Amino acid sequence: MGEQQDPEKKEFLEKRSKGTSFEPDLIWEVLSRLPSKSIVQSRCVSKLCSSITTQPGFIRSFAARSSESPCLLILFKDKGNMFVFSLPQQQKHNLNSNNHVAVVDSYSMPCPGKYHFLSSESVHGLICVEEPSGNPQVWNPTTRRFSTLPKPARRWGDDDRVSFVGYDPVDCTYKVLSMPCRRPRQPRALTLGGGGEGGARWRVIKGLPEHAPFRRGARCVNGVLYYLAAPTLDDHRDNQFLVSFHVRSEKLSMMQVPWNLTRGLRQLLHCEGKLICVISNGGDDIIMWTLEDAEKHKWSYKHLLLPFSRRDPVARTRFSLKGVNAAGEFIYVPSALVNPFHVIYFDPKAVSFRRVVVDGVADYQFRRQNGFGDYPLRTSNAFSNHVETLMSL
Questions:
Q1: What is the residue-wise DSSP string for 22-33?
Q2: Which SUPFAM superfamilies does the record match to this protein (predicted)?
Q3: Domain boundaries, the chain
Q4: N or C terminus of the chain with fewer C-beta within 10 Å?
């Protein structure tokens, strides 16, 4: 009922119904029930299908359906190709079910040069990509397209830039925030799709002193993009602070952090509606800082010993933290893929864990078809809470 009353959809269908023997509303309904792969393929079938599936109303409706079943996206690169696997992202273990999962979807595509995903997360289906020339890239795994964004001004800084994607759930708007890594600069923002104020132009975002971003890992939480930064690159270890970018208003804020003297890898994560920073020295313990109150800059502290070993000497792999599911479980993914392999879900509240066995990713048939030997397939990255989107840039 809600979709039928959508004025945007109604206007579109009324225009399309003139001069055609097809019923656009019927085609709309049929397309809305197809899986993403079929929807993307339909865009090549006819102009009407392409027009319908690129409508903002259709894209929003598809995104709402996709958000009900987030997945874990795992990829690795080899021989000039990138292999992408989509796995069901399990919630807390149901004792009456089998603790095995199989790949939902997989595909390979030409490896996009020397791109990497150090600063990336899947933000409502889009992933930001970094590459040496400094051109920001955005990857949509659903449509299998890499989109090159306009390059910021030449005089802005060096080519070594870091870019983050943010998403506003109110206006359903994506924005990219970008800045040089090697020297302090004010960020610039770009609205994806050309919508919103400023269109497809980079805008300088003021409100804070010039600063250098910490490359590894921003997080978008409820329409606010968070990333770590420092006054200069040399201060990254001992003088960090947290920057928040309100995607809708484009307001920048800065917050001091309580872990500056703590050594280890720092990861920002989104856990049950709150921002957390997980610090690890590579052992089997972690430190958790949870932002309890952003306005009062109030953090809580917890030191946990993991009830499992992050090293697996048999499979010759190591488990790395890649995200948090909706139940608040930390997701640990192996650095190398064998058949079968395990994904570990760790509950920091109960200090317990469970293993999910994944079949069919690095089996004999897959290796033979792609010319791989018996060696482990090294994981390039993994993205938790990935949802499919039909967003075109």
A1: S-HHHHHHHHHT
A2: F-box domain (SSF81383)
A3: 7-63
A4: N
Please state, in angstroms and as integers, the Cα–Cα distance from residue 205 to each residue in 150, 163, 164, 208, 247, following that order.
17, 14, 14, 9, 11
Whose CA is closest to 389, among 129, 40, 50, 18?
40
For 148-190, the pLDDT digits (tens) are: 888 776 666 556 788 899 999 998 899 999 888 777 888 999 9
Q: Which residues contact 215 (CB under 8 A, 6 or more apart)?
A: 118, 119, 162, 181
**How does 36-54 read in b/e, with b if 16+ C-beta sit within 10 Å?**
beebbebbeeeebbeebbe
Beta strands 352-359 and 100-102: pairing type? Answer: parallel
Supply the pTM of this predicted model.
Answer: 0.87
Please count the other Cβ atoms lying within 10 Å of the Cβ belonging to residue 189.
23
> Could you report the per-residue pLDDT of 344-354, keeping only the tens digit for each?
999 999 999 99
Could you report how far apart the first and last alpha carbons of the chain are, in Å? 29
| Residue pair 131/114 in contact by the 8 Å Cβ criterion | yes
d(CA 40, CA 26): 18
Report the Cα 209 to chain-centroid distance in Å: 28
| Helix (H) or strand (E) run with residue 163 in it | strand 161-168
β-pairing, 336-337 vs 377-378, is antiparallel
